[in-house]
Design goal:
The chain starts with a helix and ends with a helix. It has 286 residues and is mostly helical. It has two domains: 109 residues, Farnesyl Diphosphate Synthase; 175 residues, Farnesyl Diphosphate Synthase, CATH 1.10.600.
């Protein structure tokens, strides 16, 4: 299997909304973003599949060394072999890839976030930086587009956090800021043991208020990102706009379903994702 086939299979197998946006890119840009996305999936999977935190930490340390070797023209992993040719051309920097790994390391070391600024730092590493790299690959021409891409990446991450509240809690992780839980009088143990929590007569009201607050914050980030996107780069950044359409629609579906995220994962069908992506491609806007 060639490195290019490896990253293609990795991206396709993920079932991510990002994959649908890649389909409309020219061949070279599609190859670059697919390789970069495969890298992000590889390091993220180290955390998601971790049974032994010590082993996971060693794997991430290996990836740190592999990234360093790649920028010395010595990649050994097929993902880095596929990504390396695109790094110089699209201005992908070593520190950006290392930042993504650093964000994954935080998942091994931290399961709670005291407040929103603390969560923002995590989102910066695992999503904001990813947005910045993607914007370059898509064809960014205006420096202001970096701020747009960073903000949009954070919006995606908050949407993921909202979608995965129950799944993350069962793994012992709570990404909702502790200060927000206190504000709405929701206890961490109620998220972890939601079946017991539902026996409390007012739990649903407290949880709904908490999640509505999180959703409003995410919507605000989407709005801020759209305001930051320079008109000159709207066309080049269509893939990001496709992802925004898909992710924001998902967020709206979660809201309409009254945040069932503690016991189920709300999804959009592949056909609906493709339809949303095509509409942005055809109309040029969300």
């Amino acid at each position: 299997m060639t490195p290019e086939q490896y990253v293609q299979d990795k991206a396709a197998a993920s079932g991510s909304s990002f994959y649908y946006a890649f389909l409309f890119l020219p061949k070279e840009r599609r190859a670059a973003i697919t390789a970069f996305y495969a890298f992000c999936r590889e390091v993220d999977d180290v955390v998601d599949d971790a049974v032994d935190m010590g082993i996971a930490a060693k794997k991430l340390a290996w990836w740190q060394a592999e990234v360093q070797q790649t920028f010395q023209d010595k990649p050994t992993h097929p993902v880095m072999q596929a990504l390396m040719p695109h790094c110089k051309y699209y201005g992908i920097e070593e520190q950006q890839l290392q930042a993504v790994i650093e964000g994954c390391q935080m998942d091994l070391q931290q399961t709670r976030y005291l407040d929103y600024p603390a969560l923002q730092h995590y989102c910066h590493l695992v999503a904001g930086v990813v947005g910045e790299v993607a914007a370059k690959i898509f064809g960014q021409s205006n420096s202001q587009t970096t701020a747009y891409a960073h903000k949009l990446g954070q919006a995606f991450q908050l949407t993921n956090i909202i979608r995965d509240v129950g799944e993350d809690a069962r793994r012992g992780r709570i990404y909702l800021p502790m200060s927000d839980l206190q504000k709405f009088n929701v206890k961490a143990h109620e998220l972890i043991n939601y079946k017991l929590a539902t026996k409390s007569s007012d739990f649903d009201d407290r949880f709904q208020a908490l999640m509505a607050f999180q959703s409003q914050r995410a919507h605000a980030l989407y709005d801020e990102a759209m305001q930051l996107l320079p008109t000159a780069d709207v066309r080049s950044q269509k893939p990001g706009l496709m992802m925004a359409s898909i992710y924001r629609t998902l967020l709206s579906e979660i809201e309409k379903s009254k945040f069932p995220v503690l016991h189920e994962r709300v999804r959009l069908t592949p056909l609906r994702k493709l339809w949303l992506a095509w509409k942005v491609q055809a109309l040029g806007k969300i």
